[in-house]
Amino acid sequence: MMANAIRVLAMDGVEKAKSGHPGMPMGMADVATVLFSKFLKFDASAPNWADRDRFILSAGHGSMLIYSLLHLTGYKQATREQLENFRQWGSRTAGHPEYGHLEGVEVTTGPLGQGLAHSVGFAMAERHLASRFGDELVDHRTWVIAGDGCLMEGISQEAIALAGRLKLNKLCVLWDDNAITIDGSVALSDATDQLARFKASGWAVKAIDGHDHGQIKKALAWATKQSVPTLIACKTKIGKGAATMEGSHKTHGAALGDMEIAASRQAMGWTAAPFEIPAELDKEWKKVGKAGSKHRKAWEARHLAHAQRDEFTRAMSGDLPNGAFAALDAKLKELVETKPAMATRQSSGEALATVFDAIPELVGGSADLTGSNNTFVKNTQIMDAPTYHGRYVNYGIREFGMAAAMNGMALHGGVIPYGGTFMVFSDYSRPAIRLAALMGTRVVHVLTHDSIGLGEDGPTHQPVEHLAALRAIPNLMVFRPADTVEALECWQVALQHKTTPSAMCLSRQKTPAVRTTDAGENLSRKGAYELKAANGTAKVSLFATGTEVAIALDAAAKLEAEGIATRVVSVPSFELFAQQPKAYQDAVIARGTVRVAVEAGLEQGWMRFIGEDGAFVGMTGFGASAPAEVLYEKFGITAGAVVEAAKARL
Amino acid sequence: MMANAIRVLAMDGVEKAKSGHPGMPMGMADVATVLFSKFLKFDASAPNWADRDRFILSAGHGSMLIYSLLHLTGYKQATREQLENFRQWGSRTAGHPEYGHLEGVEVTTGPLGQGLAHSVGFAMAERHLASRFGDELVDHRTWVIAGDGCLMEGISQEAIALAGRLKLNKLCVLWDDNAITIDGSVALSDATDQLARFKASGWAVKAIDGHDHGQIKKALAWATKQSVPTLIACKTKIGKGAATMEGSHKTHGAALGDMEIAASRQAMGWTAAPFEIPAELDKEWKKVGKAGSKHRKAWEARHLAHAQRDEFTRAMSGDLPNGAFAALDAKLKELVETKPAMATRQSSGEALATVFDAIPELVGGSADLTGSNNTFVKNTQIMDAPTYHGRYVNYGIREFGMAAAMNGMALHGGVIPYGGTFMVFSDYSRPAIRLAALMGTRVVHVLTHDSIGLGEDGPTHQPVEHLAALRAIPNLMVFRPADTVEALECWQVALQHKTTPSAMCLSRQKTPAVRTTDAGENLSRKGAYELKAANGTAKVSLFATGTEVAIALDAAAKLEAEGIATRVVSVPSFELFAQQPKAYQDAVIARGTVRVAVEAGLEQGWMRFIGEDGAFVGMTGFGASAPAEVLYEKFGITAGAVVEAAKARL
């Protein structure tokens, strides 16, 4: 029986690793078998075929389920050796499915709820691209297996409400309704009627016996006919097939042990060696892996004949169109002349306006702060049912759901998502930003209101630790542009990095133009650069980001007026600076000078610029509720304070 | 009309500040008026009366609603002057309600959804304390006003599912169902049937006209009779009473302007000067503020006569019982003898076991990782309906909801909550940890699996940036104990700080005892201390935390064997170290020595110990899936690497 092949591989893999989660793969083996063999549109020989159905294992701890499926259906990278090296150094079969490690894994999962939330983005991208290129090129489904944990996480509500609102009918969630969590029965901590809950958000729902292939088949067929997203509650036994432990939470997160495995194999009539699949069964599964190839070939023919063939290929590749930055470059030249003073969130809006038409993959949105985030480009249509043609998403007050959906769209391909919220609420979306960094998705988080400069809303809305906290995430580019020129440059860099997410940190309050001469190159790309040279041999170096660059320039002018040669370094991105050659870094840092940094955040991380002896002018704790200018004064983030700090060290 | 007093004050306050949110207070003025005048048990002259009902404005942007109510009912601190200084420096009337600024504000709100999630903790604490001290001392309700934003945030699902499961029938949520968000109509981003959704999680629900006092009164009376938590959907018009802007999202987040306010006042027949309440109306409202005093006095009499009077007072004060740490102190003496090697998560479990009986306020729990977090003390009962007597909560897979509920319990008083999850998922609960730090709640986050040392689960589960990110939060004590002695010490410090939350970062993997002599004092309290002195004048200083302290000791032994005098500093808490006298800090840091830090996390923040020239042995990016010992080797976090780094700098 095909499903037993999954069960045995799951037992074997976890047993060999002495680590892992056999219960879920065993429980969902039947559902997965029917899905893969009768419904999922895929071709194991072409894992990256653009019009494949997407399969997302939101309950990522059950990774042996997807590894088994990929192996059984003949994905080239999912070798027996990989299964035998489950959870070992250098293997493609990591403890949780990792995007980029193994073809067929569409998204990194494990942090619960997020696979489900990412799947909404996949489904959005699919419909949006179908509207752009036509159903003949884009017409596939997104199938998700989710567990109780996924549904308990709050993110699930954001995901299902957004999907329900958008009527994403090609999204189907298969809930592993096994009534078991790590601590025991689901009833210990939950009494939610999940069917009613999904229904309340506009989903079509159905409950089935997750071990009855007939019921599964019927339900999946039903799902393909709905006009709204679908939830199928699959009543299963965790660890189904385990001789004595079936149905117990003990099968969830540990190897079953030799004895139990032997007994289970015997009960299944399974005599093959560990990791070995009997020839007949192997043939049957491989056939499943090949079944989609006729669809793929037909699609390739359609693609070849399609008027937008090359444009589709380009869009899916993630390459930017030719001339993507022509308007941006022109605008840069204009800005050094016009020197506009504005909030950097407005500057970001200007940047978007220069690229939005030129890069049709850009899809924006906001977590209900459109006007504040300056994320909306004039005349853009809203992405909504039934056409999904618009390029702006009303994400609702769902920062985390937005960030996850953005990742999903980026992973699907053909879309470059950006989304706005207040910077302080990057805490809400943080787990998805982390996944973006881990997977390397090109998403741009537009984080406005980036300091006490937002004023009266007070400390709950004022980031102080967030620059440090975001900079702490590996492979995330954190930008804090100082003016419109830098904002355009930072956007350009963000969009040019195909495998790096960005956080664009932007002010609510107005700030003067500081880049007032044409450098002829994108200086922000270096992460930090000398914005103003000292008059003579520099005695003082001032480092600043964002709105505080103007303060540093002001302080420099005051110091120079007293005959103290002072240079100013703008630091739009720590991460990009860290990638520069050491000689460049040393020149910018200028260790021989008195070094002072000014940023309306915490000091953490700044010593790489100012050393132990340098001074930091910034925040030391939470902000307060008052007008912005009062707060800067009260918290001592002023040119005067910078001057004093420098002079105290001369 | 009483409700109009709220409306006018809201308009006046926002107008004077030229900043704020009048729409919500105006829309919910009727509901709030009925609640405060007919149902809410409170005495404005005794804001901290233990048995008062708790009122939580989850939609915190509508702060003028609560400020108006507190002013109108006669709370001493809520003066007219405070209303006039709404959102100004030093005022009690911050942009969003801030706990500790103004009596009557039970919790800081503004980050949406969190007031609702905190309210669950209030309701839990109430029932739990009722079981401990009897209904004659503890018998009050928790009333919440929540907006559309609160209900869209994922955290709301965690909160309502937990409350529903626990049948917290004294919790009532009044939903401001105004169908408006910042970007426009709720329908732009949501189509959820909220009544059905709450019902699905076991709530009793009802929809009313939120401007019909008769309906409001009937619904609130109904709510007090239910056996499960209640949701009342109050259909309202945002900005109700605004002459031309009523019902428009334009009333949400900005001053209405002189003209609109004048017209609105005229339509209401309101002629008093700004911030002035007509005498009759003032009298009526003040009467409301005094109505509860008879209940309060009756309660005081009951309290006076109560057998557990002093114990109740102590528990509510937050003071620990005498002898709270007797068993812990004894255990410490034992540990330096027995020198047990164990995972620090086990050490934390040992610490809990020594204080759990002695501190009856401790209420533990886990987000479904009880066995992994070592949060469960043997023989503890589960907190559940109908008695709520147990001291362990099955929070379910809801890290954020757990963290918020913990804050709510701590704010209610009489409970010291701790809760466990994997450290990487502190990202999920981060927004509530931040609020804990901002408000100063004594909650302890038990964060196990604190590094790549968790092994095979891989990078989705391995914190690398989390130590830096948690250390970035002001007023949060981040502990990373090196062994069982330090774990006990850190727990003691955490529990002794009444207004500081703690994060206890703990290993999955075993580590040897490193504190093997009785210091006679709690050394962890200093944040960092010399664990091992150099043999002779120190040439090298090694700094480490947690499981890496053993690596540092190993490296020191190797260096000493080569004749290089090396000291080792254990750093259980950056925050506590930063509070030490400068002379102590300098002595510990020992700038003249070669300095090397080792921690299985990122470098960010470590320069304060090692300076620009020091070496950091740790992570530079995400982890990987493999057994722990392999990962330490592959990522080069070894004694050998520490030795090399030191020698390279000698």
From TrEMBL, chains A, B:
Pfam families in the cross-refs: Transket_pyr, Transketolase_C_1, Transketolase_N
CDD domains with a match to the protein in the record: TPP_PYR_DXS_TK_like, TPP_TK
Domain of life of the source: Bacteria
EC number: 2.2.1.1
Record has Iron as a keyword: no
Cofactor(s) essential for the protein: thiamine diphosphate; Mg(2+); Ca(2+); Mn(2+)
Keywords: Calcium, Magnesium, Metal-binding, Thiamine pyrophosphate, Transferase
Cofactor annotation comment: Binds 1 thiamine pyrophosphate per subunit. Binds 1 Mg(2+) ion per subunit. Can also utilize other divalent metal cations, such as Ca(2+), Mn(2+) and Co(2+).
Reactions accelerated catalytically: D-sedoheptulose 7-phosphate + D-glyceraldehyde 3-phosphate = aldehydo-D-ribose 5-phosphate + D-xylulose 5-phosphate
Cited PROSITE patterns: TRANSKETOLASE_1, TRANSKETOLASE_2
UniProt cross-references to SUPFAM superfamilies, sorted A to Z: Thiamin diphosphate-binding fold (THDP-binding), TK C-terminal domain-like
Signal peptide: none
Domain called Transketolase-like pyrimidine-binding: residue spans: 342-513
Matches recorded under InterPro entries: THDP-binding (IPR029061), Transketo_C/PFOR_II (IPR009014), Transketolase-like_C_2 (IPR055152), Transketolase-like_Pyr-bd (IPR005475), Transketolase_bac-like (IPR005478), Transketolase_BS (IPR020826), Transketolase_CS (IPR049557), Transketolase_fam (IPR033247)
Subunit field text: Homodimer.
Family per similarity comment: Belongs to the transketolase family.
Role of this protein: Catalyzes the transfer of a two-carbon ketol group from a ketose donor to an aldose acceptor, via a covalent intermediate with the cofactor thiamine pyrophosphate.
Stated name of the protein: Transketolase
UniProt source species: Brevundimonas terrae
Lineage start: Bacteria, Pseudomonadati, Pseudomonadota, Alphaproteobacteria, Caulobacterales
Gene label: tkt
